[in-house]
Amino acid sequence: MKGKAVLAFSGGLDTSVVIKYLQEKHNLEVITVTVDVGQEDNLKKISAKAKSLGVLKHYNIDARQEFVDSFIFPAIKANALYQKKYCLATALARPLIAQKVVEVAEKENASALAHGCTGKGNDQVRFDVTYRSGSNLPIIAPIRDLNLTRDVELKYAQKHNIPIDTTAKRFSIDQNLWGRAIEGGDMEDAFSEPPDDAFIWVKTKNLPENPQYLEIKFENGIPVAVDGKRMKSIELIKYINKKAGANGVGIVDHIEDRVVGIKSREVYETPGATCIIEAHTDLEKMVLTKHELKFKAMVDAEWSWLAYSGLWQDPLKSDLDMFINATQKRVSGTVKLVQLSIRLLEKDSLSYGDFNQQKLINY
Asked: CB count, 10 Å around CB of 53?
């Protein structure tokens, strides 16, 4: 009887190649797992593709509420911004996805765990750490272990009749409820301005000229209402993503230090996270003491590093959570944000041009 490997499956080229590799090279039956964290993919299409590749079984798991309650909310309490910029959207989702894979592997009595991460990114660490913290099963990562290039993968896919999306993709996108990460293409050049079509949440042109307001109400450090309306957590984040994005708020462009030691130009689209963390940080200034704020800033930075590095199960993170949660007992109140479109007088003419930056001011 064949052994079984459980694979975190996105439906893309990498994880599709991994299915066939596990079947052919390791003589394993493959069980695929797709975890919904708000990426808005067509889960039925992904499931159909997995089955067309001969998997033994496919799981679609809706983990959106767990993602908010157990990952996003703690990040808000910690004002989590890696290197003071990145809201950790992808970093927060990976441990949850890996955790679900481990749960399926235990249920299915699997003999191996697998993922499709490369050896250059952070995700390999995030998957490996969570896999190993919850299981002693061997971890198979063919894309990383064999250093497979895209050209090699495409040839392998053609050889094994793996359906390939031939649509030209200018960027590599990872998306969930908390943000979008955009890489590749012209943006490999750090001096190249991200093109407008890279963004789908944040409006970059024809922004409102009048000040736009957003009110966020917090209870014990957690956002519970927006613009006077109490909402369920998923809808609340979607609402702020839409409103803030429509007003040009939420594009982050910076040079990031990856866990593996590589510097990388990263562009993120995070309107909801930008507003919520900004509001939460300012509310803390109102209700916490000077000494609490000074110490919590250090705690928040360490918490963000642990989350970025995939160390979600590290005991230190649990220790930091205890301190952070204690401070949040007084973090209740409403913060008003206003977005202003700044307009600059052109030097050699009488006309005005839009300045492509939005400023958030708290009241």
From this structure: 22
**Is 257 a residue of the active site?**
no
Cβ-contact 320, 296 below 8 angstroms:
no
Is residue 23 within 8 Å of residue 29, measured between CB atoms?
Answer: yes
230 catalytic, yes or no? no
CATH of domain 3-159: 3.40.50.620
What is the pTM for the complete model shown? 0.91
Query: Sign of dihedral through CA atoms 77, 252, 128, 116?
Result: positive
How many Å from the N-terminal Cα to the C-terminal Cα in the chain?
66
Choosing from 14, 36, 128, 300, which is the catalytic residue?
14
- For residue 14, indicate whether it is catalytic: yes
Cβ atoms 164, 13 nearer than 8 A = yes
What is the distance between the alpha carbons of residues 46 and 33, in angstroms, rounded to a whole number? 10
Q: For residue 123, indicate whether it is catalytic.
A: yes
Pair type for strands 222-226 and 212-219: antiparallel
Helix/strand/coil for 3:
strand
> What's the distance, CA 185 to chain centroid?
20
What are the boundaries of each domain within the chain?
3-159, 177-362
Q: Is 217 exposed, middle or buried (0-12, 13-18, 19+ CB in 10 A)?
A: buried
- What is the distance between the alpha carbons of residues 186 and 184, in angstroms, rounded to a whole number? 6
The whole-angstrom separation of Cα 144 and Cα 17 is 12
pLDDT digits (tens, 9 = 90+) for 338-358: 986 544 333 443 333 333 334
Which tokens in the block code for residue 86? Answer: 């990145």
Instruction: List the catalytic residue out of 69, 165, 172, 186.
Output: 172
The domain made up of 177-362 has a fold known as: Argininosuccinate synthetase, chain A, domain 2 (3.90.1260)
Q: Among residues 10, 16, 36, 123, which one is catalytic? A: 123
For the stretch 139-159, pLDDT in tens is: 999 999 998 888 888 888 888
Closest CA to 39 of 233, 176, 200: 176
Out of 16, 47, 64, 94, the active site residue is 94
Joined tokens for residue 46: 């992904």
